[in-house]
Specification:
The chain is an alpha/beta fold. The chain contains ten helices and five strands; from the N terminus they run αβαβαβααβαααβαα. The chain starts with a helix and ends in a 5-residue tail after the last helix.
């Protein structure tokens, strides 16, 4: 595999790849496959079991994602690739979709996230890999995996369309850094991710620009 450090001898760290997509789409499986192929360090999905009630959760989640981002940056100095399950800026679009369930809106989310971006403690990954599947496929995959309860699976099915729209907008803003992957042919996913990693532009993404753009996008679009 050609990693970021192999693309440029001056690169200070390995690429950080963020996996996203609805529940049961296959993020955990893909992360494990990338680790087997490349020796990537994997950061699993954020454990939110200690989070406060939704209406009071904004700062808790931003702090938790910032802590995970620090861990990702540290691992990027040691591993050939870092694979993170869950977007560091998930609160921006998740709360947009579920605003009707008392999740804090963008008026709360944007200042909290922007302060972290300004401080350098939260940033966009080098590459987003957004896994796509139909509702029928997701239901079938959940039914075929009795090892996980996925208690919020039904709720998360609401994410399918708005989440895709959000990441399509982000892809339009910075095309090399967002890969939308149909998961029907799952045996090809690792190769396609590694090809996207090898094609990344040098240097990190412009997190301030991307955050401001996506904050404006969320503010001007309806998730329905």
């Amino acid at each position: 595999m050609t990693t970021g450090s192999e693309r440029s001898s001056s690169s200070p760290r390995a690429p950080i790849v963020c996996l996203e997509g609805p529940s049961a789409v296959g993020k955990t499986t893909l992360a494990a496959a990338l680790a087997r192929r490349t020796g990537a360090a994997v950061i699993p999905e954020l454990d939110a079991s200690g989070a406060p009630p939704a209406a009071e959760s904004a700062a808790w989640f931003v702090d938790a994602h910032a802590a995970e981002w620090r861990r990702a940056r540290a691992l990027a100095g040691e591993a050939p690739l870092v694979v993170k399950d869950c977007d560091p800026f998930k609160g921006l679009w998740f709360n947009w979709v579920f605003a009707d369930q008392d999740w804090p809106g963008i008026d709360v989310q944007v200042p909290l996230h922007r302060a972290r971006v300004d401080a350098g403690t939260l940033a966009f990954p080098d590459l987003y890999v957004v896994l796509l599947a139909t509702e029928a496929q997701l239901r079938a995959r959940r039914a075929g995996d009795p090892t996980r309860t996925r208690s919020n699976h039904e709720m998360h099915l609401r994410l399918i369309r708005p989440q895709r729209r959000y990441f399509e907008a982000l892809q339009a803003a910075d095309p090399p850094r967002v890969l939308l992957l149909d998961t029907t042919e799952r045996e090809r996913l690792v190769d396609r991710v590694l090809a996207a990693v090898a094609a990344l532009p040098p240097g990190p993404p412009d997190s301030a620009r991307l955050f401001d753009l996506m904050a404006r996008w969320v503010a001007t679009h309806d998730p329905a």
